[in-house]
Amino acid sequence: MGIEVVVEGLTKSFGRRHVWRDVTLTLPPGEVSVMLGPSGTGKTVFLKSLIGLLKPDSGRVLVDGIDVVHCSERQLYQVRKRFGVLFQDGALFGSLNLYDNIAFPLREHTKKSEAEIRRIVGERMEMVGLTGEERKVPGEISGGMRKRAGLARALVLDPQIILCDEPDSGLDPVRTAYLSQLLIDLNAQIDATILIVTHNIQVARTVPDNMGMLFRGDLVMFGPREVLLTSEVPAVAQFLDGRRIGPIGMSEEKDEATIAMEQAHIEAGQLDGGAGADLRVVVPQLEPTPGLPPRQAVQRRKSRVMSILHTLPPQAQQAIMASLSTADLERYRMNTAPVPLTRPAGAPPGPAGSAPPGAGGPRASGPPPQGPAGTPPQTGPAGPVTAQTRPMRPAGPPPGSQPPAAPPGRAPDGSAPQGSVPPWPPATPPAEPGPGGRA
Question: What does the pLDDT look like over 85-103, one tens digit per residue?
Answer without folding.
Answer: 998 777 899 899 999 999 9
